[in-house]
Amino acid sequence: MNTTAKRIYYIPYMLWILLFVIAPVALIVYQSFFNLDHQATIQNYVTYLTSSTYLRMTLNSFWYAFLITLFTVLISYPAALFLNQLKHKDFWLLLIILPTWINLLLKAYAFIGIFAQNGSVNQFLGFIGIGPKQILFTDFSFIFVATYIEIPFMILPIYNAIAEIDPALLTASRDLGATNWQTLIRVILPLTRKGITAGVQAVFIPSLSLFMLTRLIGGNRVITLGTAIEEHFLTTMNWGMGSTIGVVLIIMMFISMALTGEHKRKRKEIDTGATKE
């Protein structure tokens, strides 16, 4: 295939990136420099950086995203290990993927019914004598539901990374006297680090901007940057401030990707290999 033909195939991709990635981001950045009177200003950024409310929202966003990612990893990694040992792997993997085909709003309303005062969880607690508890509109319910929703996006990359491990390496580890725990820590974990990193990116970055679950499940007790963006765009109509928070959120996402990226490690490996040669 000649160079001209390759460039033609790139055109739809470049148009997609231009229209649905670059253009929206450029509009958000542009809008962030205007106030309610449509006057150009940097006051939005000054307000954000000097306001304890926005800084608290930023810390809340990072904290909740960290907790959601942590619990997702702790659940998904053992699950991925277990899945790789089953006979009908594809079937069980399909059952894990199926919930992602259901609309997020429907899943949120389902959990509202489960955690409500008269929901199934409280009915069970009443049956065993503990009594009904306030589960809905708490930090626990928000983190629980968010973790449940994000689990498939963590399991898939870890599952694929484990599936790519050469079984001979595991056999060699055991032949050398390593226990199952030592094999996990020294062989499987290092070889699946890319899968964990991909899962962390797939979960942590979207978790920074959750807003629907904060409304429906958190009951406005959980305030994040996503909630603030929704408030400014739909309630106060301060699109400039909402765009400013959006720009900050985009910067945070790029920082998260840079911190969890592999380029630095790969570059060191290349430099080390070149030095040895």
From TrEMBL:
The keyword Membrane applies. It holds the Pfam family BPD_transp_1. Residues 58-260 form the ABC transmembrane type-1 domain. Keywords: Cell membrane, Membrane, Transmembrane, Transmembrane helix, Transport. InterPro entries: MetI-like, MetI-like_sf. It is found in: Cell membrane. PANTHER family: INNER MEMBRANE ABC TRANSPORTER PERMEASE PROTEIN YDCU-RELATED (PTHR42929:SF1), INNER MEMBRANE ABC TRANSPORTER PERMEASE PROTEIN YDCU-RELATED-RELATED (PTHR42929). This is Spermidine putrescine ABC transporter transmembrane protein. The lineage of its organism: Bacteria, Bacillati, Bacillota, Bacilli, Lactobacillales.
